[in-house]
Amino acid sequence: MKRMILTSSSGAGLTYADRADMVVPLIFRFVSGPLPTSHHLEAYLKGGRHIGEVRWSDLVARSPEMGLAHKQLPLDWFCKAYGFDLIELWFDPRPNDQLQLVWILDYLRSQSYMAERLKLRLVDFDLLESDAARLRDRAVRVFDVTEPDFEAARMAWEAYRAPTPELCFGLLGREFPTLPFLKPAMEQLLAELPSTTTGLGATESRLLDLIAAGYSRTKELFQPGGLLETRVFDQWELGPLLEGLASGPMPAIAGLDPKLDTLPPHDARGRNAAFRRSRLSLTEFGKAVLEGREDFRRYNPIRRWWGGTLLTNDRLWRWQEESRSLIAP
Predict the structure, then answer these.
(1) Could you give the CA distance from residue 83 to residue 2 in angstroms, rounded to a whole number?
(2) Whole-structure pTM over 0.85, yes or no?
(3) Residue 146: Cβ within 10 Å count
């Protein structure tokens, strides 16, 4: 039986776990920045040679049997041409993984060959923290993918792409028996909307907490699995959050290397060095925000994407943590 695994970039270790003939890690990050367009996502799964554009095959290892044939074909054509009998979905509980899962399920619903061969693995652990040896023998429950699962994925993906968070908030009142991590992931994402009290998202508040506790080095704050314990953003997405807190008319953080203002976003090496040189502390205003005495967004501009929602000061959706409520602008 010929097997394929579709997973996130966190599950790249499955490539060496001998659980499938081919492992396809999907590389999109949906939790920060503007979402890719439908055209971009479709082109990603079509494959082929397109200079400067990523494709589904970019992280797929060369196969002794198939060589580099996967580099030229759309994902669904490739599966059919090489006769994959079983296609497994491995996505862990982290919000970005769950978003990737509903996106790919929504796509595969219309791909009859792949849809008929789909199985869903209930990955209740962090793929990123599991090496190939542990993945090789780990027991992971498996389920058939049914029409209600496709419909749930369509609903969730449409909700996240909508121009307001209202549909995502509505998902918290529904049940998804075969997708048990979807609702917790949505709630974690909603908690990243600005708080009604401080104007900060959950990760921004945690950053201020740690800096107030004396953790002044970005290495301590950004390292995977470290003090921050963020499940939403990866280490590359934390930098812009920190810069947002350290800029504007009333910054909450002092000590960020000023050279960051002159470095282009694509200069990863230069920006990483500048972050490491930084020695962070809270401003008096930052202390007031952390204590709930001031609202960061009352004094500082915001223009940030949350799924399909563009957050601005005039259109600022907020999250009320105590009551788990979405507050409209």
Answers:
(1) 7
(2) yes
(3) 12
Rounded distance, CA 278 to CA 281, Å?
10
Residue 111 shares a structural domain with residue 246 = no
Query: What's the CA gap between 216 and 209, in Å, rounded?
Result: 11
Q: 85 and 146: one domain?
A: yes
Assess whether 142 and 243 both reside in one domain.
no
Residue 133 and residue 102 in contact, taking contact as beta carbons nearer than 8 Å: no
User: Distances from the Cα of 126 to the Cαs of 94, 131, 283, in angstroms?
Assistant: 8, 10, 35
In sign, the C-alpha dihedral spanning 297, 298, 299, 302 is positive
Condensed to tens digits (0 to 9), the pLDDT of residues 33-84 reads 999 999 999 989 987 656 567 888 888 876 656 555 556 688 998 999 889 9
Tokens 């976003």 map to which residue? 265
Whether residues 85 and 142 fall in one domain: yes
Dist CA 145 CA 168 (whole Å): 22
User: How far is residue 226's CA from residue 199's CA, in Å, rounded to a whole number?
Assistant: 24
List the structure tokens of 39.
């055209």
Give residue 91's domain range.
3-164
Eight-class DSSP state of 261:
G
Domain membership of residue 76 (yes or no) is: yes
The one-character DSSP state at 226 is S
**Among the listed residues 307, 304, 326, 308, the one whose alpha carbon sits nearest the alpha carbon of residue 317:** 326
Q: How far apart are CA 304 and CA 312, in angstroms?
A: 7
